[in-house]
Amino acid sequence: MQSHPSSSAGALPAQALAGVRVLDLSRVLAGPWCTQTLADLGAEVIKIERPGGGDDTRAWGPPYLKTDDGRDSSEAAYFLGANRNKRSVAVDIACAEGQALIRKLAAQADVLVENFKVGDLARYGLDAASLQREHPRLVVCSITGFGQTGPYKDRAGYDYAIQGLGGLMSVTGERDDLPGGGPQKVGVAVADLFTGLYATIAILAALRHAEATGQGQTIDMALLDTQVAMLANLGANYLCTGKAPGRMGNAHANIVPYQVFEASDGHLILAVGNDKQFAKFCEIAGHPEWASDPRFANNASRVRHREALVPMLAAVVATRPRQTWLDALEAVKVPCGAINNLAEVFADPQVQAREMTVAMDHPLSEQLRLVASPMKLSATPVQYRRPPPLLGEHTAQVLAEAGLSETEIARLRSVGVIE
Fold this sequence. Notes:
Layout: E1 21-25, H1 30-40, E2 44-49, E3 64-66, E4 72-76, H2 77-80, E5 86-90, H3 96-106, E6 111-114, H4 128-134, E7 139-144, H5 159-165, H6 190-213, E8 218-222, H7 223-229, H8 232-241, E9 258-263, E10 266-271, H9 275-285, H10 299-304, H11 306-317, H12 322-331, E11 336-338, H13 342-347, H14 349-353, E12 357-362, E13 365-371, H15 395-401, H16 406-414
Parallel strand pairs: 1-2, 1-6, 2-5, 6-7, 7-8
Antiparallel strand pairs: 3-4, 9-10, 10-11, 12-13
Protein name: CaiB/BaiF CoA-transferase family protein
InterPro entries: CoA-transferase_III_domain, CoA-Trfase_fam_III, CoA-Trfase_III_dom3_sf, CoA-Trfase_III_dom_1_sf
Keywords: Transferase
């Protein structure tokens, strides 16, 4: 990989991806989630945005970042959550001079990430084949809804539609025979997020290969592929049996009891993972005989007889307050938990002890708080070097580093090629 000078100030610990330069032509969530992860690990990420509007998610609000005087800024929280540690360069890639700038920046990069429709970048001479002819070491990761091949390759792909088409909504939500049953999406864009993480893993593997061989490669990431892969045990269940699983609400297809129960004053999660844990629960519940009942003595039997067991469990859980159950079960190491809203999540002492929020100074506000990275590396820790950038905030800086003069930068700005 190429070596690039770090632009961060001060003597900070080394990061695993220091020296890796990423040219980010992606927008919305899957691509930016990937490049933010790379940036958190030390990569220098240059985010290319269209002049005038930038990444679509800059306008996906409210909520917006509050300025220091309490007014809404132009920066949507959605954008802020996926774009820290990047520099923004606003370039019009629809014009020849803008395309030339992208080729110049790509020649100085190790990785290019894009999520244009299949074939769009080829119209500009910015497709992987064109760029890799000039820069054979370049790793190009394309993220689309359906991939570069197949009958759906030209379709636009959105997380919501992918959750439906890829089977996730067929196993998410309450059972069809119960009140509230029917298809339900997951509350966060998991197809986008999983695709961003799989793309990150693939890029790291491709960088390892490029470092060893001097050869770049293309990575073809599709939201639908990722959605199918992340069905995990449910996909395996179908392939083993030929029977498509259905929605089970808060229950588990392969483990019982592993679901939500209602205590006398609220809900809790009971997640019994083995027979010893079930026996401990039965003791706490005052029904030790359940653990020796042939219908319930092992997990396979409990799964087969869930319709008998679950109402019995529900009846006894309903007799005591939630915290009484949680305290008693945690004391004997039976997995259980509360169901928190986000205010409760960020107030939780464990979440706070793990430092899962980070404060950053933003050009428009000194009050920016973001969800922190969950990656805890002992020798090469995540660093929060830059807040999410303003549109085109670093255009002049990055182009000057690429060798353009102040005069040329001013000319490109005057004719609308850059912002």
